[in-house]
Design a protein that fits this description.
CATH superfamily: P-loop containing nucleotide triphosphate hydrolases
Structural class: alpha/beta
Number of strands: 5
Strand order of the largest sheet: 2-3-1-4-5
Strand content: 5-15%
Bound molecules: cytidine-5'-diphosphate
Radius of gyration: 16 Å
CATH architecture: 3-Layer(aba) Sandwich
Order of helices and strands: EHEHHHHEHEHHEH
CATH class: Alpha Beta
Number of domains: 1
Number of helices: 9
């Protein structure tokens, strides 16, 4: 059985949280594609050539250092604007998306570029203030010292760069379901995603 769930949206909207819960619920594999760009960004910050870093990426790179930091996010969004870097990461993501047993991928271009044939596409959003508040809570719990205002500025800068780039800009696929999580609890957001997938699975059986 091949079944792909594509989850895209701006920073800290809840993509990863929803993806992990959906993957556990349906026993699908999950790939956080942001981690690929964060790992390339971290290698470039250490002096590597961006394209060589992307071409040579391996699993151990995804476990390195603090890839969740705001600095790693900024480094990721800069290398993510380079078409050659994106091209080097396409084949791995596509084969993950179409693997046997179902897959959930979250990122910016999953429904538009990586897997336009995905059975379910969600575009997850939340207000800027709510996203900054969530990321602040998350980073503060891990000892981060950034203020909410600094995090808001960081998310906005990254979103702008992601939306305005020529290569695979952040935007909803025409057939994506928009899921605004501003007023939703995590459980409510996850349930909406599960419902959309169950609906599509039922259609597939008709
Ligand atoms: O993957 P993405 O950057 O889109 O977001 P995330 O890491 O899944 O979510 C960012 C933070 O918001 C996490 O700490 C989640 O627990 C939290 N969250 C929330 O409070 N309410 C939601 N409906 C979804 C996520
Ligand atoms: O968790 P958060 O939403 O803050 O970021 P992320 O998903 O880890 O992505 C970090 C950066 O990688 C983004 O700002 C994008 O520039 C880039 N990215 C991308 O271009 N395409 C993807 N499929 C995933 C991430």
């Amino acid at each position: 059985m091949r079944f792909t769930v594509a989850i895209d949206g701006p920073a800290a909207a809840g993509k990863g949280t929803i993806s992990r819960a959906v993957a556990a619920h349906f026993r699908f594999a999950h790939l956080d594609t942001g981690l690929l760009y964060r790992a390339v960004g971290a290698k470039v910050a250490e002096g590597a050539d961006p394209v060589a870093a992307a071409e040579g990426l391996d699993l151990s790179d995804l476990a390195r250092g603090d890839l969740r930091s705001a600095e790693a996010g900024q480094a990721a969004s800069r290398v993510a604007a380079l078409p050659e870097v994106r091209a080097a990461l396409v084949a791995f993501q596509r084969s993950f998306a179409r693997r046997e047993g179902g897959a959930v991928l979250d990122g910016r271009d999953i429904g538009t570029v990586i897997c336009p044939e995905a059975e379910v596409k969600l575009f997850v959003t939340a207000s800027d203030a709510e996203r900054a508040r969530r990321r602040w809570l998350e980073l503060a719990a891990r000892g981060g010292a950034q203020s909410e205002a600094e995090i808001l500025a960081d998310l906005r800068e990254r979103d702008r760069r992601d939306r305005e780039r020529e290569a695979a800009p952040l935007r909803p696929a025409p057939d994506a379901l928009l899921l605004d999580t501003t007023e939703l609890t995590i459980d409510a957001a996850v349930n909406k995603a599960i419902e959309a997938i169950e609906l599509r699975q039922a259609q597939g059986r008709e």
